[in-house]
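Researcher: Structure for this, please.
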Amino acid sequence: MKKIVAIGNALVDVLSIIKSDAVLDSLNLLKGGMQLIGAQKMQEIGNLTVDLEKKMVRGGSSANTISGLGNLGVDAKFIGKIGNDEVGDFFKNDIQSCNVKEQLLLSELYSGRCLVLISPDGERTMNTHLGAASGLHADEIVSEMFDGYDILHIEGYLVQNHQLIWKIAETAKKCGLKLSIDLASFNVVESNLSFLKELLTEFIDIVFANEEEAVALTGESAEKSVETIAAMCEIAVVKVGKRGSYVKSGDELFIIKTNPVNAVDTTGAGDLYASGFLFGLANGFNLQRCGEIGSLVASKIVQVVGTKMDNETWDEIKRAIYA
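Model: Predicted structure, token format:
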């Protein structure tokens, strides 16, 4: 089995289920998007949601994906940056509990956190205060971080630091790793479009995008965009929610269907789809099977609030994979 390392923002998610989207309107937040926020906006959101029940879980797109891989039995490692505080300790202990090795650099800043507002329809709006996570610098990326690994998974949120993500991709590629990226959020794609296209063409082997991200990248429908993205890389994956996903590599196109489930929270669905898909690649499965495993894992995570599933659910997933 191939070994996988991920790099990204070490965050802790604070999840709140809002009663209506009026809360988003009053905060001037774009539903379904990801906003980087400062301390003042974080306080404003906190004041408006103070009476709501909150749940704290380890978050961060790449961290979610690599934790899923660790739970599936892949030799996995996460690279990120935390503060020397309670939130950072929570992140470290949690990711270790998922059978993931960690290389967490320390910062003088507070550990990063993401305030996730979950709408009644399950859609999540993410408001991220990066804190220590934003302190990861290009000059801290060295080849030793990737020694012994076969695939590097990068979260698209890092594309907002062009110098950092370019150094990551360039260094990992020189070390012989396959590079995988999740495009993260449509507004991140829109604001970094030309740079992102250059990055994909130059370094990336595997691209994960949801429908909105794929449209933002290509200006085309999901069905058409998977072809355009596949022309930039080796494997393109476009997820279309309840309709499943499209996977394309070379001349081969796979249409992956999904079983309908009662979704209560879509937080982490794309991240965990990537876990299942990369697990399949690590084991040498064909792309149809990789997509099916991705859909299986994603279908389980949307049935719980947050990005963490219990051991019984992971055992159920593993039984289904090898059934």
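Researcher: Any notable elements?
Model: The CA atoms of residues 246 and 255 lie 5 Å apart. Residues 287-301 form the longest helix (15 residues).
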